Structure formats: C-alpha cells, structure tokens
Amino acid sequence: MVTTLGPRPRETSPSLSLRSSTRREDDNSVAIRIDNVSKSFEHQVKGQVYAARDVSLTVAPGEFVTLLGPSGCGKTTTLRMIAGFGLPDAGRISIGDQDVTTLPANQRNIGFVFQNYALFPHLSIADNVAYGLHVRRKSADEIEKAVGEVLQLVGLAGYERQFPTQLSGGEQQRVALARAIVIRPRVLLFDEPLSNLDARLRIQMRQEIRELQKRLSITTVYVTHDQEEAMAVSDRIAVMNKGSIVQLGTAEDLYYRPASEFVARFVGKVNLVPALVVAVDGKLAQVDALGQRIEVRDPPAGLRTGAPVNLVLRPEAIGLTALAGGATAAADASRPAATITSRTFLGEKIEYLVECSGETLQVAQHSAGPNATSLIVGQNVKLRLPAGDVALLTVAGS
Amino acid sequence: MTATLRERIRTLLADPALAIAVLTLWLLLVLFVLFPLGMLFARIGQGEGGFTLKGVGAILFDQHQLRALWNSLFLGMLVGIAGTLLGFLFAFTVSRARLHPTVVAILDAAILLPLVSPPFTTAIAMIFSFGARGIITYDLLGIKGFTIYGLGSTLFSETLTFFPIAYLTLKPMLAAIDSNVESMAASLGSSRWNVFRTVTLPLATPGIANAFLLMFAASLADFATPLILAGNAFPVLPTQAFLQITGLFDLRGGAVLSIVLLVPALAVFLLQRYWVSRRFYVTITGKGAGQVPFDSISPGARWPLIGACFAVAVVVLYLYALLLFASLVAALGANHAFTLQHYKVIFTEGRKAIFDTLIIAGLAMPLGGLYGILLGYLVARKNFFGRRTMEMVSMINYALPGTIVGIAYLIAFNDPPFALAGGALIIVACYIFRYGPTGIRATIALLQQIDPSLEEASHGLGASTAMTFRKVTLPLIVPAFFAGLGVVFIRSMTAISATIFLVSISWTLITVRILENMTELSLGPAAAFSVFVVVIVFVVIAVISRLLRTFRAPGALPVTNMLGG
User: What is the pLDDT of residues B469-488, one digit of tens each?
Assistant: First the structure.
C-alpha cells in the first residue's frame, strides 16, 4: 500500500539520523521486558482493584506491539509503567539491558505520545519539538537542524512559528509524534493516539505512524481499544482483559485461532456455534454442529469425544446458496438449511443474519455488483461451512 | 485513580525540594493560622486560676449580645435574599438579553466598583446622601433631623456592596447551562416563561443557593458598614466584639463574641462544601462558549430587565460620584465651594497612613502571590502526605470572619514568644494568609484545567521536576499568580475587619484613618481618602491586567475574575 506522509511531498529522507539508537544487529535480543508486573489501587466501592495483574511481555528491537482491550483492561496502566508515569507494586520492567522499574520517567529516554497530544500550549511548534533537545543541552544549531528535519519528516515543515491551538487535530498529532521521536528515544509509546481524530484521519494517521516506525526501526508499544487499528499497525498484539494479557500473537493468530471466547468476540465479528465432539484422532477431530459433521484440524490438546465445544465461525467464512425451487436440493442435501432474517448493504459487502437450527448466525458476503441478484429477507438458503481450518473453543466447566 | 500511601511517601523522599517546600508551608500555616486560632480558644477558657468557662455564659446570654446575634443573623438573611435576587437579575440579563458587549462592560464596571473599594465606601456615601445633613434628605427634601442609622440603611448598603459577588457566582453558572437543553424544552412546547421555570431555574438552583450563602456570610462578617450605619439601635456581633475590646478593654469578652460568629460561618462553609457543591448539575467546561444562547427573554420582558439593571448601576455610580463631590467641596451639605483642602489634609496629616498602607500592601502583594501559587501547585499536583489537610488549613483564615482572625492575631502575637503586635509584619502576615487563598484557589482551578499529561510529557522528554515546573507549569499558571497579587493588593488597601485590631502608633492604615475621620465627623478627608484608595486600586488593576496580557503565554488559560469570589 502506498502512503504519503503528511500533506507535503518529501524531498529528502532525513530519517537516517533519527534511527533508533538502540537498534541492534542481533534481532534475538529484547528491547522491552516486562516481568510479572502488577499494580492495584483502592476503589471507593470495590476496594482493592488490580489495574494490571502479573503482566509479562517481551518486545523485540524494532518490533511494534499493541496492547488491545476494552476500557479498564489495564493497557494504559501497563504503558504508563513502561514510561515511568506510574510505578508497579510488584514485578520488573527493563528497557534494553537496564532495569528501569523504579527509574524516574525523565531518565528513561522514551518517547510518549498522549491521547490528548499534551502539546505545551504556551510554546510554538518549534519550541514544543525542541523541548526534549533543550533538556538534553543540545547546541542551538543541532536543535534547529533536528527540529527542521523531524517537522519535514511528519509533513509539517513551515509550521515552526505556529502555536498548538492554531493547528488541527491531525496536525497536533504529528507535532506530538515529532516531539517524541526527535529525542531518538529507546522506545516509542503511544496511548490511544488516534481516538480524538475522525474516522478517515484515523486511518491515514495510523498508516503514517506505521510507516515512520518501520523506517526509523523504533521499538514501539501502542495502546488502543480499536481492534481494526491494532491489526492495521502491529507486528504482534497483546489482548488484555481485567488487568491481564489473555492472548499474544499476530493479527492472524488472534483472528483465526483465538484462545478464548473473549478474544474471539473482541477481535472481529464472530459466530460461536455450539458443537459436539464425536471423534478425536490425533490431529483430526470430528464435530457435529448445525446438523452437519465438520472436520477440524489441529484440535486443542486433551479434547475428548462427547465434549461440548464452540466452533469459531467468522461471518465471511460461511457461504450462502439460494435454494432455487427444489431442483438443486439433492446436491445440497447434507448442508444445513437456513432462513435469511436480515440483510444490511454496506457497500463492499452485505451482512446477513440467518436462522439455522435455532441459532442466529452472522454471514458476510462480498457485494457482487449493482445487477447481481442478491438474497432477500425470508429466503431459504443452504449454508456452506468451512471445513478443516476451523478453530474450536472448549466450553468452560466441561 | 488515587496513589498509594507508599507512592506518596516515596515522592516526598525522592524530592528534597518538595519536602522542604511542604515543611516550610506547614510551619507558616501552623504559626499564622492554627496557632492564633488555638490561642483564641485558650483565651476563652482562661480564668483566674486555670481553665474555666465561668463568665462565658454571662457574656453569651446577655440580653444585648443575644440581640446582636439575632440582628446579625436577620441582617444576613435579608442581605442574602436581596443580594441574590439582584445578582440573579444582573447575571440573567447579562447572559440572556443579548446585550452589546460595551453595554455589558459598562454594567460590569459600575457594579464592580463596590467590590474594589473599602467595604464602607457605600456606607459613607449613604451618610452624605441620606444623613442628617444629607444631600437628598436635607438639601433636596428639607427633612430635619432625619435618622438614617439602623437596619434599613445597613441592609441597603451591604446589598449594594456585596451583590456583585452573587453576580460573579451566577454569571458563569447561567452561561454554562447547555442552551440545547433549553431549546429542547421549547421545542417540546414550553413557553419562554415555562422554560425558565422548569429548566433554567432548577439548573441554576445550586448556584443560587451558593450565592445566597456567600451573601449571608459576607454580611455576617461585615464589620465596617454596621459600624458606620447600624447605630446604637441595631447592634450586630462583629461591631459588638470590636467595642468589647476597644471600648471595655475586655479581650476575653471580645474573643467569646467573635467565636459566636464562628458557628454560622462554619455552617455556611459546610453547607457550601457538602450540600451545594454536590448539587451542581452544570459542569463548567467552557464548551458552551461556542453555542448560541437560548432566546429566553421575551421582547416585553427585555427592556424592564435592562432598565432595572441600569437603575441599580446608576444608584451605585451616584453614590461614588457623591463621594468624589464630597471630597472636593468645603463641607458637604453646608458649603459647596470647590476646594482641594481635604486632599491637602490627607497628604500631610494622613501621609503616614498612606505610606504605611502602601508599604504593607507592597510587601503583602508579592509574598501573597507567591504563597498562593506555591501552595496551590503543591496541593493540586503533588501527592504528598497531608495535602488535603494543608488545603483545608490554608482556607481557614479566608473563610473566617475578619473579626475572629483579627482578635486571634491580637491575642496570639501580643506576648512572647511571638510578640509581633504593633509591627508591620503582623499586618502583612494577616493579609497574606487571609487573602492569599484567592491565589491558591485560582491556581488550583487553572491547574485542574491543565491536563497532567502536559507535565508528564515534559518529564518523559527528560526534564526534572524543577525544570518541568519552571518551563511548563509556571508559564501556564502565571495568570493565577497575577490574580493572587491583585487580590492581596486590593484587600491590603481596603480591608479593615481583621487589621483594625492590629494597627498601632507605629503602623496604621488608610481604612482605619477613614473610620476615625468618620467618627470625628471629618467627612471631607474621609471622602478624599476613599477616593484616593479607589483610584490607587484601579491603577493597580489596570497595571496588572496589562501585565497579564503581556505575560500571558499564548496557550495559557484566562483567569475569569480577579476577585475570585
């Protein structure tokens, strides 16, 4: 995908001088290590509440890891502990080889991008960006050069004398980003940086952030509650719930092989269809669902015959075929029959709700074009379920 | 999310500058707030041979004093009602009648005059107007022997003096009501009157209650107006306490009477803090600023409302014009020949009072401003042990009636180890700890609007706590510093209720001289002094506003008013 960085075309590529200082040749090393970190606070009603509980995570140099979860899941708390804005009650945090668990934030050399940007309203754009360089006692020449470079990098060359309040949300976001990367931080941390932008700008900015991060190879931890955003930018995603990381993996891992019902439901749309295991044979299991027998490859270990499970069926993995009279019925005899109860046209796709054996399923199909005959509400259809590559979730308590 | 105790202790230990600042402030607060108050209570329980409450009852239940208590409460209620009504009238008209900004500025200037003058200025002008030889009663109406002294004139004068506080409380309240809510009620079929009755008024109720309590407290604590206008027929507590000490030399009796004032003052404070503040439906976010206000005033009601506001403004302006006139004629009511004699008097005989006042105000101003932002910053931004308590203690002298503070200081600093009475230092300290809290409040309010992430961003970029304060926080709270400076200066020039107990041969104040002039019937010099104070205060306000514009960083938030409520 081709992305442009900011509104102005780049003439030079100043990115080399901004490359992360901790970039190592040995990619097996660790840039951030979080070991069993916990933090709790006193809630007026609930008493002691864990904002983060035994969180462990390692991030490789140059890697982009996102903490994803609903509000209150502990993702921001974890991020702020990496930054040093809050100290953990227990556990260890290291950046590179250095234990930073109790190191003050101003000695960690990190770049932090806040949800509200946190630009200094009394300083010009240039002074905002130069702030961290002044703190590091860089010479005036160096500062001017670095500020110019980084503003060009984020597409804001010429904005030096403006003030934050004169800028749009997207521009402010770029300044915040420039201010964070100009100090050549060891790690770059983002706390829901796009949540104050409108939908279109959000998509553009997340591409810019990812581009920049790749070019500068800065180890990055990113916090968001938007699963699509997480999937768009991350190398790996850590899904958090109630203070703990519940699954860590690539976007594909989370989408196709969710480890729990929570992850399955949080990442993308999903049908969790009750099924019964009828046979297990090493790497192959047979389950009955919606009146049909389905083969499942690589079932979870310890799966027993007779156990109730949930099939993870993504809406786009289910196919629909119209029942044209009764002629084709024979060919589809083994497939489950269903009735369409709702149809929503969304442009590139059409979402259906279908009734099948008492279950309501979400099904998504690509739009076939303006003249294609599409299915209508009330129509009887046959479902095509995916075979083999289906994830199974064991039902708790069985 | 509240920080754990461990974290708070850790921050204090990790930051020696913070620890030193906190410790110093606590020492000052103990010495100048808690110690005097403790000594006041100790004095009340002090008899011939140790602790006793003998005699306290005799003072308390004396018929005369009971009447003074009743009078104080009754006057407070009336001033509360009248002042709130007037304040609401102005606030509602200004926020809803679509007045031209210039008209609003004129109204504002007129009714803010009493707030920045010595508290008894309107009272003096009342005497000039309606006294035995008053320009209206005697000259215009020809009434001989008219008595102005009593409840009516005191009520009138206090209402005019204090209603601007109600106005300043109610204006942001009304402005902050989401006009969409009112428009919604109208679109559901409500008439304008109905919208006002069923939406606007209920939403403004906590503000109204708050304004009433502020008026009540201000009247209760007011010492100067009753001293001039109430007369013997209508004794009130603050003046009784003063007379007990200066007339009967009964320090203990004065202390007891002042403590009686504490009860209603405390009740008002608690009501405000725990009842009114919880009922605020309107959060002032500044978000309503861009909205078009609901068209809530019918054309027929608009002009009467504006007319009423202007009538009040004209009365205020008339009283001040009369004051100026009285300072420029030989003898008001008798000889209206132009003369500068009174000004000559105040710049010769009164020179010491002027110099003393300016020195004291000049000292109290920077110290009070500094105290305000330092304490405000620590309380709002730092997690140290006992910061809530520190905030509460810092507000005590501000919340208490001046009479109590004055008597407490007199008792506490009369004898060793802190024999400071009679000096300038004690007056300066009184002003700092009594009026500095305005700066504290302004600082806290400003900091509450500045997201902590700004400071975290600075910290994260490598700046130390001290550097973050200097380069990020301080520039943003400069407006609060100047607001604090302004209030401390204005009050240092105009206050009397506490410091009348602290003046001496060596150090005196203009306000005290004005009062002396009034009792000696040297009305001309009293008027000249008053005009002088008003002029000085206006000049200083102009200079500070100018400084604020110059120093205000482009992104810094405005401080809404210099008087801070």
Answer: 888 888 888 888 888 888 89
Domain residue extents for chain A: 14-261, 269-394
Mean pLDDT of B492-509: 87
Asked if A109 and A186 count as a contact pair (C-beta separation under 8 A), the reply is yes
| Alpha-carbon distance A118 to nearest alpha carbon in chain B (angstroms) | 5
Under an 8 A CB cutoff, do A106 and B7 touch?
no
Domain annotation covers residue B426: no
Residue B518 resides in a domain? no
Residue ranges of B 257-286 with Cβ closer than 8 A to chain A: none
Model pLDDT, residue B350: 87
* Residue B4 contacts A, CB cutoff 8 Å: yes
pLDDT at B194 over 60: yes
Per-residue model confidence (pLDDT) at position A332: 60
Does A88 contact B at CB distance below 8 Å? no
* Contact status of A163 with chain B (Cβ, < 8 Å): yes
Task: Say yes or no: B460 contacts chain A, CB-CB below 8 A.
Answer: yes
| A304 burial via Cβ count (<10 Å: 0-12, 13-18, 19+) | exposed
DSSP code of A340?
Answer: E
Query: Could you tell me which of B489, B472, B454, B483 has the C-alpha nearest to residue B547?
Result: B483
Are B14 and A104 within 8 A, CB to CB?
Answer: yes
Residues listed for chain A: 398
Q: CATH classification of A269-394 is 2.40.50.140, yes or no?
A: yes
Residue B379, Cβ neighbours under 10 Å: how many? 21
Chain A residues close to B7, C-beta within 8 Å: 87
The ipTM assigned to this model is 0.75
B472 and A105 within 8 Å at the Cβ level: the answer is no
Count how many domains chain B has. Answer: 1
pLDDT at B221: 87
Q: What digits encode the pLDDT tens for the residues B253-282? A: 888 888 888 888 888 878 877 777 666 655
Pairing of strands A380-384, A319-322: antiparallel
* A42 at interface of B, judged by CB pairs closer than 8 A: yes
- Integer Cα distance of B236 and B64 in angstroms: 10
- The residues, any chain, with a CB within 8 Å of residue B14's CB and separated by 6 or more, are A104
Contacts of B458 in chain A (CB under 8 A): 120, 131
Q: Which of B183, B131, B192, B139 is nearest to B157 (CA)?
A: B131
Cβ–Cβ contact A120 with B under 8 A: yes
Domain A14-261 fold: Rossmann fold (3.40.50)
